[in-house]
Amino acid sequence: MTSPSTRGPGPDGSPDEENDASAASNPTRRIVVAGGGIGGLTAALALERVGFSVLVLERSDKLGEVGAGIQISPNAWRVLDELGAIPATEAAMVYPEATRIGSARAGGIVGRVPFGETARHRYGAPYAVIHRGDLHAGLAETARSRPGIEIHLGMAVADAQEDEDGITVEIQGSEGVSSYRAEALIAADGVWSTVRRRLLRLPSADYSGRVAFRATVPVEAAPDLASFTGLWMGEKSHLVHYPISAGREINLVAIVESDWHEETWSAPAERDEVLGYFKDWPQEPRRLLEHPHNWLKWALCDIGPGAIWAEGRIALLGDAAHAMLPFMAQGGAMAIEDAYVVARCLANDPDVDEALLAYERARKDRVERVMRTARDNARTYHMKGMMAFLRDTGIRYLSGTRLLSRFDWIYDWRP
Q1: Which of 71-85, 91-105, 251-265 has the weakest average pLDDT?
Q2: Closest CA to 64 of 30, 93, 36, 22
Q3: Any idea what DSSP says for residue 105?
Q4: Can you say how many angstroms the Cα of residue 169 is from the centroid of all Cα atoms in its chain?
Q5: Which of 38, 174, 176, 339 is the most exposed place for a label (fewest CB within 10 A)?
């Protein structure tokens, strides 16, 4: 079987041949990772670091990330640093000085959360923002440099059978199905995870009733925003912006409460459609929204608390396990944390079933608290009338340091 790969194939092009250099001496220490996105590549780096040979299967024929920006808070930055991924990504990162909080009801800025040196001093690690594509490319570059990681493109998990000694993963490629013997299967294949639905027979994520419009603009269109992230809150809508691409662009994410009528979960959007939701907003955020002519929209979906993450030798990671609303900017960070913890659990316990259950137990309370916080923020950001007035007054009353301290439980997590 032949397939696109980031490394040259073995004699017959099969995954078994391609990873024999790193696994031949210990063939039972193999792990399959379904999904070559940010969570999957971070998992591969974490697993390889503790001694596993890792086969990454990516359904697409090329590696890449959908969407523009991602926020790398100190908790995620520490993991990337420990896994050696910072050198390949740091040049594209931006370290904002602060987040400015604006209110459409109040007509201006009502609060400021300090980052920059304040975050470095408080958490021992920075708060960064980066283009998803730049982060993904850096992770891929780092993974390719590790002898224990193989990345195969145009391949996906079709099925898997477990027994006492391991798991046989059936791999669908362009020329048919092949088998690969491993110790465990880690599914980092996203919100519409095939492993979640087909192998674990768990329900898919649900539409949240919210749509995210995304676009980027050159930093020259809003040079005063080059050093800051921003949050504007409004009735049934809010706007987030932050610099990406080493400060060359501003990422815009406008989120509204709306029905979804498209045939797919993402689609192009008309500029007038976006502006229509914000026609009554203050001039400053409206002027920013007027710059892009090309928008994309996504239906925001999430998975409720209490879902299963691990069963037998299969475990879910990132959005496949706990797709969440983006109102804490922690979806990517939680996947990065998951990757580190699942690798440590597998390294510490030779009983794979128990190791994966330990991973679920170690992660679930924290992740579900983040999920609940994101849902609470969704309600807070979209308040109207007297509730919005009280919200704005409360934010004005709190100092920037007090506002930042509310996130200590998230940002101070250490691998």
Answers
A1: 251-265
A2: 36
A3: T
A4: 25
A5: 176
Cβ proximity of 217 and 260 under 8 Å: no
Contact in structure between 36 and 56 (CB atoms under 8 Å): yes
Q: Which of 280, 281, 267 is CA-nearest to residue 212?
A: 267
Q: What percent of the chain has pLDDT over 90?
A: 83
> CB–CB of 93/222 below 8 Å?
no
The answer to whether 127 is a known catalytic residue is no
> Which entry of 242, 277, 381, 411 is annotated as an active-site residue?
242
Mean pLDDT of the chain: 90
Q: What pLDDT score was predicted for residue 67?
A: 65
Residue with tokens 């520490």: 78
Q: Estimate to the nearest angstrom the gap between the alpha carbon of 119 and the chain centroid.
A: 21
- Cβ-contact 143, 56 below 8 angstroms: yes
372-406 pLDDT, tens digit per residue, is 999 999 999 999 999 999 999 999 999 999 999 99
Distance of CA 79 to the CA centre of its chain: 14
Question: CB–CB of 3/13 below 8 Å?
Answer: yes
How far from 222 is each of 49, 240, 298, CA to CA, in Å? Answer: 42, 14, 24
CA 368 to chain CA centroid, nearest Å = 15
Residue ranges of domains in the chain, CATH in brackets: 15-66+134-205+304-373 (3.50.50.60), 69-131+207-301+379-411 (3.30.9.30)
Region 358-385: mean pLDDT is 95
Q: What are the helix and strand counts (H, E) for the chain?
A: 15, 19
Q: Which two tokens stand for residue 88?
A: 């390949």
Taking the C-alpha atoms of residue 22 and residue 146, their distance in angstroms, rounded to an integer, is 10
Instruction: Judge whether residue 17 has pLDDT over 50.
Output: no
The pLDDT of residue 261: 78
* pLDDT score, position 65: 61
Q: Which two tokens stand for residue 317?
A: 């990671």
The token duo for 183 is: 């110790």
The span from the CA of 169 to the CA of 392, in Å, is 53
Beta carbons within 10 angstroms of residue 218's beta carbon: 12
pLDDT in tens, 50-64: 999 999 999 988 776
CA separation for the pair 76, 370 (Å, rounded):
14
C-alpha 182/C-alpha 78 separation (Å) is: 29
